[in-house]
Specification:
two-stranded antiparallel sheet, 9 helices, about 35% helix, globular
Amino acid sequence: MRGTEGAPGGIRRRREWLKWGAVGLAVLTVGAVGVGWAAYEKLDGNITPDTETANELARYEKERPTALVRDAQNILLIGSDSRSGAGNHGYGQDSGAEHSDTTILLHLAADRRSATAVSLPRDLMVKVPSCLRRDGTRTRPVFTVFNQAYQMGGSACTIRTVERLTDIRVDHHIVVDFRGFKEMVDALDGVEVCMTKPIDDEAAKLRLPAGKVRLDGEQALGYVRARKSLGDGSDTERMDRQQRFLGALVSKVQSNGVLLSPGRLYPVLDAATSALTTDPALASLRGLYDLVRGMRMIPTGNVQFLTAPRRSYPFDTNRDQLVEPAAQKLFAQLRADAPVTVVTENTEDSGSKSRNAAPEVADRSERRTGENPYRESNTHPHDYSESPGDTGEEGSRESDPAPTFRGSTAAEGTCR
């Protein structure tokens, strides 16, 4: 009798357990979804949309270049030297004037099989158009150094200056400050670089041994910003160093599974999104995801870095000017989404010489054949080549060969 009477009670108890187990599972599921949604909302809200720049560019839409190749993307990366904001005061007093400490035009090929990053020298002499100041007044057009454009009119003025200089339409822009740069490097647990010799730079607060070194955020910032006491002291040499670091950064992200591990990816995304000011189209996780998704499969050997061909400005040797026709050939290749061939230099003496700078071309060695393919034209050495045997005469060839530029790839950013 007890067995028959106990059976219904046992069934009821099992039903109760199943019911509460299902409720618990539902609560856990909802909680997980809630946590996931909260994380998404936090990351999505971190990014600052630059609506002012979008409005200013819309005002001048008719004068902007037309995009020639569908799906190709040109993104202007701007490193701001602003001392305002949390974590930035340690790099000098906030004068209220911001400059573009670093500006890189990143071209993503339409097939997403290659990416080319072109550094634009901050001391390059350019024509800056009339721009909208923060106080609502407008500047007058002026011929001045490139990084003045950002001080005069922020991202919109910089973009319009770049578009006039290159005739390339800028599809998106991303601005990052000192603090954001440091936090992104720290979120990646540092980035490894190779030092050909020790560094002891008091101004940059940087002391590093020779050889393989993992830089934390603070050290990385000093490494990419130092100018006077590293290499030959030129801004072009500093850009070369920035390119080597970015190559190592790309290699780190692609090689250690960051993009495939949610646990490792979240802090990187949190640091990155908190540091970014972007055009409205990129100012969301969806916008950034679509951008990164197209880049993640690009081999590091196809992520190229170079500096716009430049030489000293004749009226002020502390300033730069573009080398022609090299610069226009580079911009034309990017505009048409055509291949840009980069020749890597011998890195033994890379700390003392600068890529795509006009002087001393004949003294540099190349990895490809041991010969220097760069030739002089009109007595001015250009740091690019159309072909080793090109005579430069009209009708001497059936088609124009692709110009070659000195630079590096992300594959070279790794220590071997």
